[in-house]
Amino acid sequence: MYPEDVLASASLFSELSRRDLKRLAAATITRAYKKGEVIVKEGEDAVAFYLITKGRVNVMHGGEGQSQTAMATLGPGEFFGEMAILDSYPRSASVVAVEDTECLVLSRWDFLAELRSNPFIAVQMLPVLSRRIRKLQQDIP
Predict the structure, then answer these.
(1) What DSSP state is assigned to residue 90?
(2) In the chain, where are the structural domains located?
(3) Does the structure show a pLDDT above 90 at 129?
(4) What architecture (CATH level 2) is domain 28-108?
(5) CA distance 122 to 114
(6) For the segment 9-53, what is each residue's pLDDT rounded down to a tens digit?
(7) What secondary structure letter does DSSP report for 127?
(8) I want to staple 104 with a disulfide (CB 3.0 to 4.6 A). Which of 16, 22, 28, 44 is the partner?
């Protein structure tokens, strides 16, 4: 499967044209993580978006010295770090590989460079982000 096909499978990029997907895919790298490896750590600078192509990860909340709570388990086709490509706030959660995992990684800098050259990408992503926020709000008890 081509990287642009993998990106297209992620809801965040589902509205993008094939041409835009190819441009973003060209900016990604593939990274492998071993079972138990921390991929991102809560509180660290957020600098990239991750799309899982193989394996599974746990999204954990609670820093060092605190009990960690598993918020979600994600697998192939799912993603994390989407806020990192939009802002430069610290990570809101840690992500740990539950099994050997492979991800497509898109850095914030590369993503922003694409947005500068083609702002329509952002316009296409806004409805998807809005739906995600609405879903999160509905899930709050």
Answers:
(1) B
(2) 28-108
(3) no
(4) Sandwich (2.60)
(5) 10
(6) 888 888 899 999 999 999 999 999 999 999 999 888 888 999 999
(7) H
(8) 28
